[in-house]
């Protein structure tokens, strides 16, 4: 270990920053965030420095560096573009046994500043000791993306609870289980993120009162239409924490790759026209698994609340006392639209968009009159087997046979295929497409060629 990692309290401690340009500006921002008394010495200052000075946040010394600037300081940071000046600052600081950071030059420095992911009070610092700063930055971005913004609030909340947890639970194991429950408590995190402390107190009280045996829960997660890059960050966090993942055929292999390796996977495949596992049986699986105290993720293609029967699954859970939540996903219409260059709305051609099921059951006759109206885009889910009927009804209700249509098959995946034509050919086009396919009907379809990028 060449460098000793250390977090230090700089509040109300004087720090000398040498330099007044853009690089020094970044350091000044960090120092101010940490509550340091910042003394800046330089021959020129960029404008933010004057603003900070006016706001009383720091003091400026318009001068070349000289050793007495270090008087009373705890730390020095050399951020000029002159190697010699930086070296001088470093040398004088060392002579006084004071740590000195030299920006981008660890060889000249006695302290280095890491890349940080700040979820105060939680702080993650990453350093490559100057060998691979870009690698450290990329790693920081990855961690940044993985950790929810509200993590800091949860950590601060936990900090305040420590004495109570200590006095409530005698055993270390009990305390660990309590903390695990608290840190996995999604609704508590969300409540804190919303700044609703009253509700957070209620949820915390409930946590103290419930038995420590793990309580199961179900999270409906939208997996998006195929491309794993379209999974939300929240969805990713959920599938990486799950004990069990219940998924169906619409969830892509790519997304399944991201599920925690040792999570149990239950396939309840569904395909157009038939269900491998009836809905009631799926509901039962969710109840049973969560009832055993497991964290169950019900992973669904697209968005769980758009033709995903998500509501039915939640209804089945709602009477059971098992907590549940929903993480939305990118629905096939959005994904297919973006990846095929067909905008769903456009000021000149479509003022509204309608997501319609092509799988109409006996009690769900569609309002064809309205669907055939101009200046809107129709997106039919599960429409492949009904394409001839859709064509017949729309023509019968006055839509032009020349209305552009497109079928997007396996949208957003590497196997995406688009078959385009006009309404009068829809039934024929549908015979060339495989499930899952989306049918898009409207003038916007004609924009596809100029906007295509995928
Ligand atoms: N909840 C899903 C929809 C489920 S219904 C969502 O929000 O996207 C199933 C229908 O969605 C399929 O019949 C098909 O019409 C459409 N679909 C889902 N994924 C698709 C994809 N990758 N490409 C094209 N259509 C898709």
Automatic annotation (TrEMBL):
Protein's pathway: Porphyrin-containing compound metabolism; siroheme biosynthesis; sirohydrochlorin from precorrin-2: step 1/1; Cofactor biosynthesis; adenosylcobalamin biosynthesis; precorrin-2 from uroporphyrinogen III: step 1/1; Cofactor biosynthesis; adenosylcobalamin biosynthesis; sirohydrochlorin from precorrin-2: step 1/1; Porphyrin-containing compound metabolism; siroheme biosynthesis; precorrin-2 from uroporphyrinogen III: step 1/1
Protein's recorded name: Siroheme synthase
Region (Precorrin-2 dehydrogenase / sirohydrochlorin ferrochelatase), start-end ranges: 1-204
Protein encoded by which gene: cysG
Domain spans labelled Siroheme synthase central: 119-145
Catalytically driven reaction(s): siroheme + 2 H(+) = sirohydrochlorin + Fe(2+); uroporphyrinogen III + 2 S-adenosyl-L-methionine = precorrin-2 + 2 S-adenosyl-L-homocysteine + H(+); precorrin-2 + NAD(+) = sirohydrochlorin + NADH + 2 H(+)
Annotated NAD(+) binding sites: 22-23, 43-44
Annotated organism of origin: Erwinia aeris
Family note: In the N-terminal section; belongs to the precorrin-2 dehydrogenase / sirohydrochlorin ferrochelatase family. In the C-terminal section; belongs to the precorrin methyltransferase family.
């Amino acid at each position: 270990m060449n460098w000793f990692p250390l977090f230090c309290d700089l509040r109300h401690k004087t720090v000398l920053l040498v330099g007044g340009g853009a690089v020094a500006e970044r350091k000044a921002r960090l120092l101010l965030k940490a509550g340091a008394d910042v003394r800046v010495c330089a021959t020129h200052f960029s404008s933010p420095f004057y603003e900070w000075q006016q706001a009383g946040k720091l003091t400026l010394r318009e001068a070349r560096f000289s050793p007495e600037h270090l008087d009373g300081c705890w730390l020095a940071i050399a951020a000029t573009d002159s190697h010699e000046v930086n070296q001088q600052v470093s040398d004088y600081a060392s002579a006084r046994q004071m740590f000195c950071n030299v920006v981008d030059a660890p060889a000249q420095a006695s302290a280095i500043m890491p890349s940080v992911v700040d979820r105060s009070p939680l702080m993650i610092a990453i350093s490559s000791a100057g060998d691979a700063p870009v690698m450290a930055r990329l790693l920081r971005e990855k961690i940044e993306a993985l950790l929810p913004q509200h993590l800091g609030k949860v950590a601060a909340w936990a900090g305040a609870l420590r004495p109570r947890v200590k006095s409530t639970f005698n055993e270390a194991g009990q305390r660990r289980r309590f903390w695990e429950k608290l840190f996995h408590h999604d609704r508590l995190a969300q409540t804190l993120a919303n700044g609703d402390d009253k509700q957070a107190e209620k949820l915390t009280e409930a946590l103290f009162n419930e038995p420590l045996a793990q309580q199961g829960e179900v999270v409906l997660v939208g997996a998006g239409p195929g491309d794993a890059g379209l999974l939300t960050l929240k969805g990713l966090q959920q599938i990486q924490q799950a004990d069990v993942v219940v998924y169906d055929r619409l969830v892509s292999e790519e997304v399944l790759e991201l599920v925690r390796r040792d999570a149990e996977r239950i396939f309840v495949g569904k395909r157009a026209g038939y269900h491998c596992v009836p809905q009631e049986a799926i509901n039962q699986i969710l109840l049973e698994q969560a009832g055993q105290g497991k964290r169950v993720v019900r992973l669904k293609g697209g968005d769980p609340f758009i033709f995903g029967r998500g509501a039915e699954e939640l209804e089945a859970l709602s009477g059971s006392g098992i907590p549940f939540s929903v993480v939305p996903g990118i629905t096939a219409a959005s994904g297919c639209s973006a990846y095929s260059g067909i905008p769903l709305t456009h000021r000149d051609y479509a003022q509204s968009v309608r997501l319609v099921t092509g799988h109409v059951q006996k009690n769900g006759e569609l309002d064809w009159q309205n669907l055939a109206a101009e200046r809107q885009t129709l997106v039919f889910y599960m429409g492949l087997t009904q394409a001839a009927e859709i064509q017949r009804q729309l023509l019968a209700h006055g839509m032009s046979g020349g209305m552009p249509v497109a079928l997007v098959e396996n949208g957003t995946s590497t196997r995406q295929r688009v078959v385009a034509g006009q309404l009068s050919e829809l039934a024929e086009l549908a015979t060339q497409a495989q499930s899952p396919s989306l049918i898009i009907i409207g003038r916007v379809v004609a924009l596809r060629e100029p906007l295509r990028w995928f």
